[in-house]
Amino acid sequence: MRTTLLWALVPTLAAAAACGYPKGGAVPPPVTGEAASVAAKKWPDATEASLGEGRALFASKCNACHEHPDVNAVAAAKWPEIVKEMGEKAKLDAKQSELVLRFVLAAQSSR
After folding, report:
1. Which residue range(s) make up the domain with 88?
2. Are 68 and 26 in contact (CB under 8 A)?
3. Is the pLDDT of residue 41 over 80?
4. Higher pLDDT residue, 88 or 6?
5. Cα(92)–Cα(89) distance, rounded to whole angstroms?
6. How far apart are CA 101 and CA 84, in angstroms?
7. Which listed residue, 21, 64, 105, 110, has the most CB atoms within 10 A of its CB?
């Protein structure tokens, strides 16, 4: 009986835990122009193309398990840990996670 009750609660608890993550939002537009220049000052190898790769990963991987997070709903300082944790779950390698992180932070700065 207890096992049945526990298994009945698992989906409810999982859904409640997901609600604590960043609120959902649309995928931000591509990072271009001034925001890409700002990103290149922080990461000299950042380009519009690499930021576009990060956006593509964000768009395809983040929506696989939950709604896209609103990148502006979370402080920039929290994104490295979020991307690390979610990148592991999405099976992103270190380079892919870095591309997503750079895109998210560049997208925030372009608002």
Report:
1. 23-109
2. yes
3. yes
4. 88
5. 8
6. 9
7. 105
Structure tokens at 63: 């929506």
Structural domains in the chain (count) = 1
Band of pLDDT at residue 38, cut at 50, 70 and 90: very high
Q: DSSP 3-state assignment of 69?
A: strand
* pLDDT surpasses 80 at 26: yes
SS3 24: strand
Is 5 contained in some domain? no
Joined together, the tokens standing for residue 8 give 């009945």
How many CB atoms are located within 10 Å of the residue 54 CB? 25
For 77, which DSSP code? G
Residues 105 and 76: beta-carbon distance below 8 Å = yes
Q: pTM for the full model? A: 0.78
Q: How far is CA 55 from CA 21, 99, 101, 103, in A?
A: 19, 8, 9, 6
Max alpha carbon distance in the chain (Å)? 60
